[in-house]
Amino acid sequence: xxxxxxxxxxxxxxxxxxxxxxxxxxxxxxxxxxxxxxxxxxxxxxxxxxxxxxxxxxxxxxxxxxxxxxxxxxxxxxxxxxxxxxxxxxxxxxxxxxxxxxxxxxxxxxxxxxxxxx
Length: 118
Prior knowledge:
By secondary structure, the protein is mostly helical. Helix content is about 40%, strand content about 5%.
């Protein structure tokens, strides 16, 4: 009863922004299956991949939509997976930077990621 009369004030946890991907819509397709194999079929399981990993970059990727959706084979399992294949990882990073720079400058990208992939 007294809680309503005297509501608690104080610190509230800041909500994180979860932007939609700027590269790929979440429709069950795999970004690398489409790009490398022209395979547009839907997968039962799709995993979200943050294009720029690491502690600060993961949060930047989430806030700016630097993410793609991958099938398990292209995300974690096998030799073509981005976590096992540096060429595929670099390909996604280059594509992401190109898409971002369609609406922003390279300086803005460098301010966020601190590395040029093009």
